[in-house]
Amino acid sequence: MPRSSNTTRQTRPSRSRLILVLGGAASGKSQAALEKAGYMGPKAFVATGQALDGEMKARIARHRETRPADWITAEVPRDLAGWFESEGPAYRTIVVDCLTLWLCNVCGRRLAQANMSDRVDDLLQAIRRNKARVVLVSNELGFGLVPASRSARAFRDLAGRVNQQIAAEADEVYVVISGQPLRLK
C-alpha cells in the first residue's frame, strides 16, 4: 500500500545523503559546505584540523566564528569512521572539514607508502549507515603547481585518489572557485 505524502516527508531516509565539496585554499569551500548542509538539526561539525601552532589555532578560531551557534563541534583528527559509528546516529546534518587534513593526520610521514583505499571504504560505509545529510570538504590539490618534493607529490596524488573514491560514491559533488560552487554531479 503506498504511503501518504505526509508520512513520506516525515520518514528519515534509510541511508545518508553524501555531498562532497572540493576547492582550493581559501576558495570558500567551508562556507559552501555549510550552505549545502541545510538546516535540519541536530547538526555536527566534525573538525579534523589540529591546533599544533599559532597560525593553525587562529585559523580554527576563525572557522568557529563563521558557524552558527546551533552546530555542535567534534574534533576528530583521525578516527572518522569510528566517530560516525558511535556519534553519527545522533545527528541529522554532519559536515566534515576537511579530508585533506585527515589524510595528513592519518598518514603522518608514511605518505608514499600509504594505501588509504580500505580506510576510505570503511569511512564511506560508516557514513552510509547513518541517516544524516553528510557534507565532506576536501582540497582539490591538482589545480596547483607540481610540487617540488617527492613527498609533496605523493601526498597530492594520494589526496586526488581519495577525492576520486569519495566522489564516485557521493550523491552530489561540487567544486568551489572564488566562493562560487559549481555542481559536478
The major β-sheet equals: 7 strands, mixed
Our estimate of the beta-strand percent is: 15-25%
Would you report the number of β strands? Answer: 7
What is the CA-atom radius of gyration, in angstroms?
17 Å
Portion of residues within helices? 40-55%
CATH fold-level name: Rossmann fold
CATH superfamily: P-loop containing nucleotide triphosphate hydrolases
Instruction: Report the order of strands and helices.
Output: HEHEHEHEHHEHEE
Low-confidence stretches: 1-10
Number of domains: 1
Secondary structure tally, helices: 7
Q: Averaged pLDDT, please?
A: 88
How would you portray this structure in words?
The chain is built from seven helices and seven strands. It is an alpha/beta fold. It has one domain: 3-Layer(aba) Sandwich (Rossmann fold). A seven-stranded mixed sheet has the order 3-2-4-5-1-6-7, with helices on both faces. Strand 6 and strand 7 form a beta hairpin. Helix 4 runs parallel beside helix 6 and helix 6 packs parallel to helix 7. The longest helix is centred in the last third of the chain and has 20 residues. It is globular. The chain starts with a helix and ends with a strand.
